[in-house]
């Protein structure tokens, strides 16, 4: 978007050569955070796991209901969050949600894994997520 040759920066310069570009500090900081995570295999795995965990529950209204019932039983206010490539704070929110609701998430996954009415693929995915949580 701010491309020097074909982006917004170039378009503004074409219209007014006295205009100058000031990069957004918040966006630059977000890019630093993203690059830092990409440089660490462990951090990348962790955030990939958080996204898989969110997607597992969010892609099914039944599974989301299992999770929200467990959270309501224990009066928890956080719910799982999706990651965002543009907002670093989403990663913090997702981490806090996992930390605050670890037991409820674990119980929800094991309930789905042990449910005889669930599809085999769902049970296998749930089992894989449980194994990752136990590490």
TrEMBL record:
<feature type="region of interest" description="Disordered">
    <location>
        <begin position="116"/>
        <end position="135"/>
    </location>
</feature>
<protein>
    <recommendedName>
        <fullName>DUF4371 domain-containing protein</fullName>
    </recommendedName>
</protein>
<dbReference type="InterPro" id="IPR012337">
    <property type="entry name" value="RNaseH-like_sf"/>
</dbReference>
<feature type="compositionally biased region" description="Polar residues">
    <location>
        <begin position="125"/>
        <end position="135"/>
    </location>
</feature>
């Amino acid at each position: 978007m701010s491309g020097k040759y074909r982006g917004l920066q170039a378009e503004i310069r074409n219209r007014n050569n006295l205009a100058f570009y000031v990069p957004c500090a918040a966006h630059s900081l977000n890019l630093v955070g993203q690059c830092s995570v990409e440089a660490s295999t462990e951090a990348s795995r962790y955030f990939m796991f958080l996204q898989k965990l969110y997607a597992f529950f969010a892609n099914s209204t039944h599974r989301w209901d299992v999770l929200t019932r467990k959270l309501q039983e224990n009066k928890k206010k956080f719910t799982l969050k999706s990651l965002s490539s543009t907002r670093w704070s989403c990663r913090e929110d997702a981490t806090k949600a996992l930390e605050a609701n670890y037991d409820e998430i674990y119980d929800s996954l094991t309930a789905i894994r042990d449910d005889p009415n669930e599809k085999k693929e769902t049970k296998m995915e749930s089992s894989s997520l449980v194994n990752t949580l136990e590490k």
